[in-house]
Amino acid sequence: MIEIRGVSKRFGRVVALDRVSFEVRNGEVVGYVGPNGAGKTTTIRIAVGVLPPDAGDVYIDGYSVLREKTLASSRVGWVPESPIFEQEFKALDYFTYLATYKGLSPSDARRLGRELLNEVGLGDAANRKLSTFSQGMKKRFALAVSMIGDPPNFIFDEVLSGLDPQGIAFFRGIVEEFRRRGKAVLFSSHILTEVQMIAQRVVFINRGRIVGVYTADEIARLASPAIRIRLKHVDENVKNLLTRFGSIEVSENTVILREPRAEPSKILEELVKSGYSVEEFRISEERCLEELFMKLIKGEKV
Ligand SMILES: Nc1ncnc2c1ncn2[C@@H]1O[C@H](COP(=O)(O)OP(=O)(O)OP(=O)(O)O)[C@@H](O)[C@H]1O
Ligand SMILES: [Mg+2]
Prior knowledge:
The protein has helices at residues 40-47, 69-74, 91-101, 106-119, 135-146, 165-180, 192-196, 216-223, 236-243, 264-273, 289-297, and strands at residues 2-11, 14-24, 28-33, 55-60, 63-64, 76-79, 153-157, 184-189, 201-206, 209-215, 226-231, 247-251, 254-258, 278-284. It is α/β, with parallel strands linked by helices. The chain folds into two domains: 2-220, P-loop containing nucleotide triphosphate hydrolases (Rossmann fold, 3-Layer(aba) Sandwich), CATH 3.40.50; 224-291, 2-Layer Sandwich (Alpha-Beta Plaits). Strand 9 and strand 10 form a beta hairpin.
């Protein structure tokens, strides 16, 4: 479990974080979403113990990052936004070096290296220099390193950016597996669509402040597109018909159907079959995901 409690941080005059609090429970994937510069990476660096907060604390499985840093840090695997490695090392050698640093014997470290590099799809690249690795390969390598010691908590910072579809599918799969195994996973991104498919809850941050926390179901509901239907006449019968498919708003001859419970084509078919003359039938983009994101970020009511 990851608990962020009242964390604040300034860089000179920039308030990067202002009393940020939220938690990631065991067996839960939480998306951490906000625009560039919102404070995601700063929060994450504080949570993994590489940056001290000005105020507040982070607890990893109950251990304070400030007061019990070694215990706290050993219980969280971190894949940084831009992983930096010793470029001239070969992957397996460097992995072995890092794993011995974390307390494994050299032979155990090497064995674990082979196993984890295989698991992240780098088995064939184990003896290649890290300087020859692509961005996606570096992220996979960082993932393998974060898995040393099989920590019960994981933090991924913008891990999907720059990955190809195969890489994205791979990281999604691994996050899902971690969740099934009861780990707490925090997953940052500036793209809501990316996070929505993977997280059970999403914490929104803007300018250093948490601006909303929603479950994936709430987001799906808030973001579901509305259907705008213009008819020749709107009578009670057509209102009753459309109410079966969602909540409706009527103004003159136009009906806006929110949270549609059926495929739009099915709704159109029903209208036509019942003899209504449909003049316009349009899926309105007004509530789709990115729009919702902008509204949340601006602090508008959703
Ligand atoms: N080391 C630093 N020195 C000065 N300012 C910093 C430093 N690190 C972060 N900041 C500032 O703190 C704010 C938050 O930055 P942060 O990197 O946490 O944002 P982010 O949400 O991760 O953004 P992105 O989506 O671009 O990765 C920004 O205004 C940034 O310029
Ligand atoms: Mg960042």
